[in-house]
């Protein structure tokens, strides 16, 4: 069913066809113009040759016919070389005179001269200028040309009748009938030409719409996150979108435009599922695992659909849809996260009221007691109550229920001292002094970030680096520095294998992890904490110097907003106090 065209529809060819249609119309007029010009030239050569032969053989004794034919041949050559193609328009014009008028005058003169000196009938030649006017001009111009031809023929017949009344009457009747036939030819030729032009325009519009739709379909398929393969019965992949080439996990799939599923042993599950679909003539769906020698296993959810080929052979084509199982599981975990977020927000609100009561009761109790041991207990209760209150605020901040509490954000944090202290304590707790190298940078650099949140971010990044590196010197490097006048950065680099593209795309999504023992929330929370402080957390593959030689590794870079230099100097003096880790 045809859809109504709208002004904003991609498939409405009216706007795009405005320019293309004019180009096609000009090309069509030029083609028809050159066709008629060639026909006139051939006719001129034939007339000049015929009249010359008749005159030389003595059949015709009129030099006028030879002269008229030669002049017509010269006129056709000049018009073909110097007149540019154009439509004849609605009425008589210079183009009509040069293209049609010359023919009418020439054929009329030949017909008038032959009545006294030749037996050749030139009346059928009027069909050529009539067709030119009908095809290149309007209906009115075509009928006007037919009327002119009829008048010229009747005038010649009347002249013959006046010269010979006994033999002129049949010529008048013949001219009248020929004129009627020319009117019919003019109407039919113009009607057919208009119909063909209209059909040609509609065909161009349909072709343009089909081209736009094909391009949009290809764009959609190319940008799909799921893989799409088109495979023939022999297992040859005719087409594949970029997502499918990435999921296949082979250099051949990334390099070759057309490849075969039999070329890689890891693709055998896909080949078997395709053959099963082609053999049974039904669609199938299954979970498969692709294994390559130098890579880890890839778990894919595969769906097959059969489609008839457009080729002459009529072989069946199988469309294979590939989905990464980890992405499907991540979507399910994201839905769970949304539910858990709503639940945690509700629980956080409910905790606030009893927590406030505990805090107030503890404060009142602290006022009434004097025993040092009991004082120590009330201080412990107060400290942990404040810690619980901050945890509640963090949950609400991550769930975006309320904006970040600026009371927790100190004016500036000395970046070098803070990074060195956090890194050193982490290395001591994890027995990783040999692996970790810290380059804290300028001690006068201060950033706007909460110290506790910065510790959580750096510890999480260092824990991830520890899981993926070997026990070697300089395997983990923390480098701090100033990027420009407004930004500073901290890079946590680890010498490890590159991340898989499917993992890198979803690196900061919640519950998405390549490690089955990980919850997948660490990097998500780190990024959320960075965004709360107008900072950013990104991943990049970089080369650093490790053990005196270049080494490739994974780097997580935090870009901070610089703080005021006056505040940094005051805070640097207090940063020398020992750091006590917060225990949750």
Globally, the shape reads: elongated
From the alpha-carbon coordinates, what is the Rg to the nearest angstrom? 45 Å
Mean pLDDT: 78
Indicate the multimeric state: single chain
Number of helices: 16
Q: How are strands sequenced across the largest beta sheet?
A: 3-2-1-6-5-4
Q: Domains counted in the coordinates: how many?
A: 4
Give the DSSP E fraction (strand runs of 2 or more residues).
5-15%
Question: Any low-confidence stretches, pLDDT <50, length ≥5?
Answer: 1-21, 570-584
**H and E order:** HHHHHHEEHHEHEEEHHEHEEHEEHHEEH
What's the end-to-end separation, in Å?
65 Å
**Helical fraction:** 55-70%
For the report, how would you describe the main beta sheet?
A: 6 strands, antiparallel
Let me know the number of strands.
13
Q: Which structural category do the helix and sheet elements fall into?
A: alpha+beta
Features:
single chain; 584 residues; alpha+beta; Beta-Lactamase; Helix Hairpins; 13 strands; 58% helix; disordered N terminus
Q: Can you walk me through this structure?
A:
This protein is an alpha+beta fold. It has four domains: 13-210, no CATH class; 223-328, 2-Layer Sandwich (Beta-Lactamase), CATH 3.30.450; 331-407, Helix Hairpins; 408-574, 2-Layer Sandwich (Heat Shock Protein 90), CATH 3.30.565.10. It has a six-stranded antiparallel beta sheet with strand order 3-2-1-6-5-4. Strands 8-10-11-13-12 form a five-stranded mixed beta sheet. A two-stranded antiparallel sheet has the order 7-9. Helices cover 58% and strands 15% of the residues. It is elongated. Mean pLDDT is 78; it is low at 1-21 and 570-584. It has helices spanning 13-57, 63-82, 94-117, 127-136, 139-163, 165-223, 242-248, 251-255, 268-280, 325-368, 372-398, 415-430, 451-467, 501-505, 522-532, 565-574, and strands spanning 227-232, 236-240, 259-260, 285-290, 298-308, 316-324, 413-414, 436-439, 446-447, 476-482, 487-494, 536-546, 549-561.
